[in-house]
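User: Here's a chain of 456 residues. Predict its fold as tokens.
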Amino acid sequence: MNLTFSKLTLHLRSVAMLLLFAIPALTQAQDEDLLFIDNTYVDNIKTVRFHLDGVLHSYPLIELNGSGKLRLSFDDFNDEVRRYSYKFIHCDQDWQPSSLSPLEFNAGNTIGYFDDYDFSIRTLRDYIHYELVFPNRDMQISASGNYLLVVYDDEDETIPVITRRFMVQEKLAGVTGRVMRPSIVDQIHTHQEVDLTVGTKQMQVRNPLRELRATVIQNNRWDNAVTGIVPSLLQNDAVRFDYQGQVSFFGGNEYRNLDIRSVRAPRTEMVSVTNEEDGYAMMMQADRPRDNGTYLGYIDFNGDYINDRFEELTLQLTQESQSGETFDRFDYNYSGDYVRMTFVLATNTKLDRDIYLFGGFTENQLKPEYKMVWNTQISAYVGQAVLKQGFYNYHYVVEQNPPPGSTKASDRFTYDYIEGSFDETENDYLALIYWRPIGGRYDRLVGTSQMNSNVD
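Assistant: Prediction complete.
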């Protein structure tokens, strides 16, 4: 009898182990059509914001077992409430699915649902605003590293509507970095270089050249990230990532600012402001190219945007408010209106290549809907975007053929012709240090450092 029981126990353990290692393969097969980048897949979803809870302008980075949380919010132009679900996919440092099963990195449920939503109030364009804060009691994270947050319409869980990258770190490595002028002569006036020093005293690193890697991103952009950086110098209890020209970025130019927090009196100069059935429409005063070799510094959000409104709603004691309506619904998340914004870029002559709007609101991608169109009547490029009231950053970038063998999305466009690139430009940088011990099954994120090009 004991022998039979032992055989049964062994069989059950074998089945459990088989399922444990089969889950990642099944998950990967189910998500073959996913883009492992920040992306919105459907037209009815607008204004996707993802940041630290309580810090609107921040990296989606939290500490393992820490108190920090992340907040995802978006507006849905559908008339009816949808049952949106979400899940996490654990990734390696290259943003490919890791070998961990959900049971190994998620201490809660494998699928969660959006329960926090409400309808817009007193807006020309009706929408439903959804919010999610995690980790929460249903979805908890138990391993560091890279993650992809995937949001599905519950009507069809095979089709994603939103994906967003985020990181979870365990503070084992002390990371210091500096942003400096490049050592390569051809890049001195157009680029910025990042050097890193990583303390490894709290880690048992046997082979740093094999186990440690660094990634550096600029302004929360992944399209131009420098990844897979190998230590260049080994020291006692520390390693350095110090290369000439390898960890360098185009400085770019300060982002252009668009201030439409007020629909009655926008701070950005407009040619026209009209009131339409499904929102407001604005046309800006024409922008002009800045690629003239002269840098002009001013404050921006480094490509990000923040939603806000200046106008205060006139509150009336309606039947709705008498029944217990919360005043939280009167903030900009539910009362911000939408604007069909027309951008104008006066170049006088048409270029032999395409121009795109680019920034946080385009998800730092060259998207067809943000392609500028040449207007012969005004000798300028014109483009449109549907934007919620707020303060936006944007660039005009020019499409180009990437160098042979390049896989970087940022190599598909250039700052030449319109914006220019300067070493003086103020930019944010985030360094990520990954550690996969010999025999380890996933890339642990063991240290980070946030830097600014204007701060020594």
